[in-house]
User: Fold these one by one.
Assistant:
Number 1:
Amino acid sequence: MLEIKNISKTFNPGTINEKQVFKDFSLTVKDSEFVTIIGANGAGKSTLFNAIAGTFITDSGTIELDGKNITLLSEYKRARRIGRLFQDPMLGTAPGMTIEENLTLAAGRGGWFSTINRQDRERFRETLSELKMGLEDKLTKPVGLLSGGQRQALTLMMATINPPDLLLLDEHTAALDPATAEKVLQITERIVNKHSLTCLMITHNMQSALDLGSRILMMDEGKVVFDSSGEEKSKLKISDLLVLFKKRSGKTLDTDRILLS
Amino acid sequence: MDFGSILTLGQTALELGLISSLTVLALFLSYSMLNVCDLSTDGCFTFGAAVGAVVAISGHPYLSIVAAMCAGMLSGLITAVLQTRMGINSLLAGIIVNTGLYSVNIAVMGNSSLLNMNKTETVFTKLKSSLSSTAFVSQYKIIIAFIAVALVILFLYFFLKTRLGLAIRATGNNPAMVRSSSINPVMTTTVGLIISNSFTALSGCLMAQAQKSVNIDIGSGVLTVALASLLIGNAFYSGSRIALRAVFASVGAIIFRIVYTLALRFNMPAFMLKLVSSVIVIIAISAPYIKSQIPMIKRRLANRKGGLHA
């Protein structure tokens, strides 16, 4: 369970660029809940992920993950329990290293001086075959040779090879072509269900925000303006979301980037 | 020039090439793997030479090697702490350590800028005396240098396959990915620089003991020469097999020495060494960039030829 209590964050305090992104922001996500997050640019969606993952430390408030206080923990320490994917497929993998070397770093089994053995390779092959992208036969190929979609799928595997307590997906399919994006989304859903992961997913695709997950959040100016789950969520349509957004935030949803279908 | 003197020249080039290839292997780890340009290399090389010489002069030929490597590790640790824990830019951290080491090195050598090891017992003299009745007696320097290089390459081959080695490579390749794989990039950078600087110091120590003297300038320009050698090696092999890349890094150092020796035979003055190595580094690093610009330059020129109508 993720519990964010009253966090606040102001960037560049005391300067002309001062910007308060969160003021007493709270959010609770239950175990195995799959939450999709939508909102206009600058709503604070990615900033929320940065706060949870520890890219910056909040000014006040607490963040707890499964009962442990992680508020002041550094980013790499949180990464042991939080998996994260970015929009840019290049960010999650080391291009100059092979698939199995990337997976080894993510898998984190054994000591610092352990090397890849047959058992690891067997496990990697098995995990990768779930993707149905043929990556299981390319274990010793450099990741730089893979396509964006393949790299993002591999990153997803790396983030979940040891099922994390929390998975953060920051528009992880936005940079992919529609067909590949669809495929990566299907894989995402399968993996999240398989391990019953607690997952937050930011998306600009309203349809996948409605199709996927058990709860939907709409954010605006650092606040949650709409929160729906269960049966209520399953009945929502895109038109409902647009009306709701206008009602709650007093403006129309920036539709330049938002995909309505 | 008779055959005998060609052989002697070749042998000297091989000796110097092998010994300096230890610095090239250090850069292979810090520059090629960790993606840090360690500007403390010159000072660290001299540091290893000075510490090694002082310990050897006090009568401990084997301990001198260990002491020099430990000195290198210390220097690497300081460079790493400056850039990872104290917010100093990585290039600046290297320059600062390099400058500081100048004073340290003179202090280590007992307030002198020159130490003579003519009568000092070193690993080289040890091997020379134990080979005295065999046919290999004149190859003693090559044997020691070769063993050192082989051990370092073997170490790198195994080390870079371990999880720690992979983490160091990933830190140079994609730091963002390292952080999100729960590995501390501060730790990997520190370990990488400690190991690479121990090789640089070993290189300095063996260089001083092979030429039986240290002077405070022994390390000046070593970084550029080693970088040139590394890039020459890269030109021959830049594939994905780590061990081969390390081997070719050392081969690059030997080629550099052979070319340099030949140039000296054709009356190039010795002081040209550093200019030549600078030019090699400039060409090797800038060539890919300039090559990528050529189509654009051509288009601009064509455009200009078209004159007013273009």
Note: Chain B touches chain A through 22 residues (CB under 8 Å).
Number 2:
Amino acid sequence: MEILVCIKRVPDSAENEIVVDDGGRDIRRDDLTYSVNEWDNYAVEEAIAIAEREGGNVTVVSVGSSEAEEVVRREMAMGAGQGLLLQDDAFDNSDGRGIASILKAAVTKGSYDLVLTGAQADDGAAQVGGMLAAMLDWPYASLVNKVEVSDGKTLRIGREIEGGAQEINEIQTPCVLSVQTGINEPRYVGIRGIRKVASVEIPVLDAAALGIQAGSVGPSGARVSRVDYFVPATGKGAELIEGTTKEIAAKLVHLLKAKGGLK
Amino acid sequence: MSAPVFALIAHKDGKADDSALELLAAARTLFAGSSPVALVAGSGPQVQTVAQEVARAFDEVWSFDQPDLGYPNAELLRPLLTKVLPQGAMVLLPHNPLGMDLGPGLSVKLDAAYVPDVIGSEGLDGQTLKVIRQEFNGQVSAHVRCEVSHGAVITVRSGAFPPAVASAAGKVVDRSADAAGLAARRRFVELLEAEAGDIDITKEEVLVSVGRGIGEQENLALVEELADAMGAVMSCSRPLVDAKWLEKARQVGTSGQTVKPKVYLALGISGSFQHLGGLKGNPFIVAVNKNPKAPIFQAASVGVVADLLELLPELTEAVKKAR
């Protein structure tokens, strides 16, 4: 099975405090640590596990600046044979639909049976996989938390729905699946693994190579664009308790007792 | 003339989902003066039951009754909606596993803008719709501008718009014939309900809940000690279940359990909307997080910006002494 996994380099929001900068034009990026989008890491692991079980190849692709190469290499080190970078100044500031159309061009240049994406990324839009499937006219399933290959043409998949229930579907290949976290346990990538793929050549395709009209992507092709970031003026929020650790603990115990928190 | 507005009604066991009235409220906020049409698709008598229920809130309801639609399969609903919706339609969906499955592809098929997970609106100005979303796991919000001259598919976050009051006597239009002969390359097989574990956090009055901020699996012992000292049960947020550190039955959130404790300790939990969506009954929330910007501090009653590993032993000690 030929599998393509679409990945994105994102600020690691578990590790970083995100601060609005520059009057809301962007977030403060100087001190951010970046990594592969968490959902994508599960998607790459799933692809590699399927290829190991059923045979086949895994390619990791990212739309992004030269910095995206670092995360593509990291994911290749998990066991993906090939990497692919889709890079062009014209791609900057594309909306989700623009990104999906760039990926579509890359998918149609290969012969993939299965395309995986993460269920969502840093912008929480959860959109690229579904758009890509519709553009390819392939079937799609989102929030996938189980993949079994029944035969060459059909997958039996689980989708995570409300309340922890799992919706089982059969889906025909070729198809696009967006992968939910928790589907597997992504393997650890050590420094040796990264070194092994350090010199593997990663092809770079630009708009011309992909046959993409510059005006159809980027800001001119975008129907959805961010005006600014802001921190909402919310209600009063939490009353903050300060002091030494001992003082804080004492105050918390007092409050918990008053509210019935000690049984 | 203003664009036609539609809302897809999620329903189960012959009852409309809570999202129905929230979508109506969202539609009226995003498109002032609109009279949205409710779309009810399903199979059997419950389609009419739901359509009649929804007609008490929407002026017009389109019902689609076909055997294939017995389970809401986005791969069938997408061609159906692509066929029946007029050009330039504004379609509102709940931002839930169905809306997320259906929406992105539907926007491509309708050649419409896709506007996901909307939590607020600044209204429509000509062909430009301005909405509010969140990014970075709720740490910051964003104003987003959408060009909607070709229509839009909009998913709406649960709880973001207070439900509209049902005060209509709408008409139900049976459009089942339009739903005949749909085909999909994805077939619904079965629903596996979550396994009932030994632990039932849904009935607990005091929960000590732990998230990614705990750092390492071995640190969970510190949380367990605190929970034991308090006479409480340990629950958690999603990342700890993903990491297989704790069982699914302990997970609070829309994809886990819905709980309604009196007191809720959120330890190292950022407070994503999916997590808070599983926390009902207006509990007294104590949040401890090292990130002062964590959204949990907006939901919490009291907060502590601290390192869990320092605070937990002290807190457990203080609880023991207080007993």
Note: Chain B has nine helices and 18 strands.
